[in-house]
Design a protein that fits this description.
single chain; alpha+beta; Ribosomal Protein L22, Chain A; 2 domains; four-stranded mixed sheet; 7 helices; 35% helix; 26% strand
Length: 239
């Protein structure tokens, strides 16, 4: 099994949201993605949505597909999937100035979050008791922030795999940081594998369903530069 993950920093692109380069990049994507981009009120949101679409296009090309050509349907809690290619699973996330995409041959989810000062009231209200205990025993604000965003991204990536969204309360399952990282529910360890990654100012996580098979290796996401994205689009004569 191969898991592929990608990151793209859209910092600065929001200033180009009304410019010709931004428009050309949008035109490379489907009308569906273009509508998502236009729906954002602020330029920062438009830039992130464009970045997510470009990563989806780049990742799908590794399978011989293009974002603008595939049919994307939506399941439980609006989880997207490829209607005509059920063997290819993907997920997208974005926060701050980072966009993220993951691809696998089994159900997968990802989450990236910009690290800020954590609100312990949120943790005490929504996290599992074991997770709250780890946070309360952490060393200072820096320790609490690190563990809060580890838990948050791992939990979000798991929810996105299951497609449960808000239907599964965050305290109904517990992330065990291990190593290895595991997820438990109802006293049982569930059949999922995680990868987690730290960057300056950000935390990210990937979750993949094992499905009773050998656990996949989840690689460090590949950071793509704008030069790579532009070169990719140029080679395909899109721009």
């Amino acid at each position: 099994m191969t898991v592929r993950a990608y990151m793209l920093d859209v910092a600065g692109l929001e200033q180009e949201a009304n410019g010709p380069e931004f428009a050309r990049l949008c035109a490379a994507l489907s009308s569906r993605r273009q509508k998502k981009i236009e729906a954002f009120r602020f330029q920062s949101g438009k830039a992130l949505s464009l970045g997510a679409g470009l990563l989806l296009d780049y990742g799908l090309f590794q399978y011989g597909l293009r974002e603008r050509e595939v049919a994307i349907a939506y399941g439980a809690d609006e989880k997207p999937y490829l209607r005509d290619f059920p063997e290819i699973h993907f997920n997208l996330s974005h926060s701050g100035t980072l966009a993220m995409a993951v691809f696998a041959d089994r159900e997968t989810g990802c989450d990236v979050e910009q690290v800020k000062t954590p609100d312990m009231r949120v943790a005490r209200r929504f996290f599992a008791p074991e997770e709250v205990k780890v946070l309360e025993e952490a060393d200072g604000e820096a320790g609490r922030s690190k563990f809060f965003y580890r838990f948050w991204t791992l939990k979000e990536s798991f929810l996105k795999v299951t497609g449960s969204g808000l239907r599964m309360p965050l305290d109904e399952f517990c992330i065990h940081l291990g190593p290895p990282v595991q997820v438990g529910r109802g006293g049982k360890i569930l059949d999922y594998v995680f990868g987690e990654f730290g960057y300056p100012g950000y935390r990210a996580a990937v979750c993949v369903e094992k499905g009773g098979k050998e656990a996949p290796v989840i690689p460090e996401p590949e950071f793509l530069s704008w030069e790579q994205i532009l070169s990719f689009q140029n080679v395909l004569n899109v721009l």
